[in-house]
Amino acid sequence: MLKKILMLLAFALIAGCAGPSKQAVMHYDMGLSYIKDNQFQPAYIEFQKALEYDKSNKDIYNALGFVYLKFDDLQNAKNSFQKAVSLDKNYSDAYNNLCTVEIKMKLYDQGIADCKKALLNPLYETPQKAFYNIALANYREQKYDDAVNEFKSALLRAPDFYPAYYGLALAYKESGDYGSASDALGKAVKLDPAFKGDMKKAEDEIGRKASVPVEEDQTRNLLEIFRY
Predict the structure, then answer these.
(1) Any idea where the domains of the chain sit in the sequence?
(2) Smallest Cα–Cα separation from 150: which of 168, 166, 162?
(3) pLDDT of residue 152
C-alpha cells in the first residue's frame, strides 16, 4: 500500500510538467503495476488514461487487450490486439495474444495464421508460446498428429516449457498412444513448479481443480492419463 501511495504522489508531482507522451508512459506503468497485483479494473482505467495522451502506442493497446482478456471480453481484446499489430507488423507478442483470443473464439484458422505471423519475426523471444497456440488450435480441431508436432516444436525452442508437455500428453491420449501420453505427463509434472515431480499432489490438486494446467474442460482427460 505504501508503495502505491508513493507512486501516486510521484505521479502527481511530475504530471504538471510532463508532456503528453510522458504522461502516457506514467499511466501505462501504473497500469502494469496493477496487473502485477492482479488488480485488473484499476489497470484498465490507467490504460484508458494512457490512450488519452498517446493513441499511437502499441504497448498500451497490447496491455489493454490483456485486461479485456482477463475480463473475458473477447471482442474488445481482439480489437485491442489488432490495433497493436496494425501499429507494428513485427509485434510478435501482440500477434500471439491475438491468436490466443481467436482460439478462445473458436476462430482456429485465424488464430493459426496470426501465430505464424508472430513466428515470422526472427527476434521473437518466446516463439514457444506461438507454437503452443498453434498446437492448441490443431488439438481443438481434432488434428492430433499436427498438435503433437507443434507441441514438440514448442519444446525444441524451450525444453522446460511445461505447458507443452501437458498439451502433448492430451494429444497423445487422443491419438491412442497411452504410453507416450503418460511419459509426457510425467515430464510436465516434473517441470511444473506447482508440483515439482509430485505425481500424487498433481493428481489430487488437478482433481480438485485447485491447480489446472490445461483448460478446465480437459481436466478429466488429464486425470485419466494419471491412471495409466
Answers:
(1) 144-228
(2) 168
(3) 98
Low-confidence ranges of the chain (pLDDT < 70): 1-20
Determine the pLDDT at residue 214.
Answer: 82
AA identity, residue 151? F
Mean of the per-residue pLDDT values for the chain?
A: 91
| Burial annotation 93-105 (CB, 10 A radius, 16+ → b, else e) | bbbbbbbbbbbbe
User: What is the predicted pLDDT for the residue at 75?
Assistant: 98
Angle subtended at Cα 74 by Cα 72 and Cα 78, rounded to the nearest 5 degrees: 140
Residue 169 CA to residue 184 CA, distance in Å, equals 5
Quote the pTM value.
Answer: 0.88
Kindly report the CATH class assigned to 144-228.
mainly alpha
| The pLDDT of residue 15 | 44
